[in-house]
Amino acid sequence: MNARGLALTAGLTASSCIITPTVPHTPFGTEHRGEVGEGDFLALAMGSTTREDVLLLLGEPDLRRDDDRIFAFVWDEAWLFFAAAGMGGGGVAGEATRHLALMVSFDESGRLARKEVLKQPQTGLDKDWYSQLEKWR
Amino acid sequence: MKASGRAAAAMAAAAIALGSAACSTDRETRVPQATVAREIPDLVEGKTTRDDLVLRFGPPTAEFEAGRIFTWRLVAGRHGIAPALTGGGHDFAGGSSWRQARFSLVAVFDPHAVVRRFSLVAVR
Predict the structure, then answer these.
(1) Are strands B62-64 and B69-77 parallel, antiparallel or unpaired?
(2) How far away is chain A from the Cα of B79, in angstroms, using its nearest Cα?
(3) Is the CB of B34 inside 8 Å of chain A's CB atoms?
(4) Hey, how many other C-beta atoms are within 10 angstroms of the C-beta on B11?
(5) B26 CB within 8 Å of a chain A CB
(6) Listed residue (A26, A10, A125) closest to A79, CA to CA
(7) Of A78, B5, B12, B100, which is the most buried if we count CB atoms within 10 A?
(8) What separation, in Å, do the N-terminal and C-terminal C-alpha atoms of chain B show?
(9) Which SS3 state, helix, strand or coil, does residue A93 take?
């Protein structure tokens, strides 16, 4: 959950409020790329898909590591909707979000060696998430 | 309608809108070649060179495999496909900001710096 989500959650003290899980979807206003769909994930074949193929399919990666042996494609997902009415008729509404990343690694010949979708725990901290991306092998 | 009633109605409307947004399906990310040909007619496999693309879109936002592959972040503006204003860097989530961009153009060059393959990916 990002800082905005935590702050808004903490602000839900009014008597009239809605807190409901939603079907995971791309949050409004995200700065990150859209979701990497299952079809694209399945199109990545171990041992045959090349680094060039991955780039042509998904575009520029968000994170490059270990001399381009590892790419990360990062997006956000909203999983909870909340809204609260204030005493004066105003209110707040927002979404709780988390980060996801498609991680891919390549062998010495530049062919796909591993792929995995990492999901930040719904109540996870960003610094732990970033550490997870950095440690992925 | 009382103020609290209006707020409740607004919340209900937001919940319905959110529910609709959540019903998205696996989106198509690769822009069809026919659309690319219409939007970027001067991008042709076996003909367009690396220099042509740099002149058209400016320096690439990323290079791979010793310059064999270039990528650009692009937007669809009033005057067609154009380079995006990118902030660069990564945020704390490990993702780079695509706020200013909609597309990633990927061009693969042959040893003579001529485009061998390319794709335009709808990133957002």
Answers:
(1) antiparallel
(2) 23
(3) no
(4) 20
(5) yes
(6) A26
(7) A78
(8) 40
(9) strand
Six-digit token pair at A126? 């960003």
- Residue A110, sorted as left (phi over 0), alpha (psi -120 to 50) or beta, turns out to be left
Q: Which two tokens stand for residue A45?
A: 């074949």
Render pLDDT for B33-88 as a digit per residue (tens, 0 to 9). 888 999 999 999 999 999 999 999 999 999 999 999 999 999 988 888 888 876 55
ipTM score of complex: 0.81
Residues B46, B49, B54, B57, CA torsion sign: negative
Nearest-by-Cβ selection for A31 from B6, B98, B118: B98
Nearest to B59 by CA among B47, B50, B68: B50
Q: pLDDT by residue (tens digit) across A34-86?
A: 899 999 999 999 999 999 999 999 999 999 999 999 999 999 999 888 888 87
Neighbours of B39 (CB within 10 A): 15
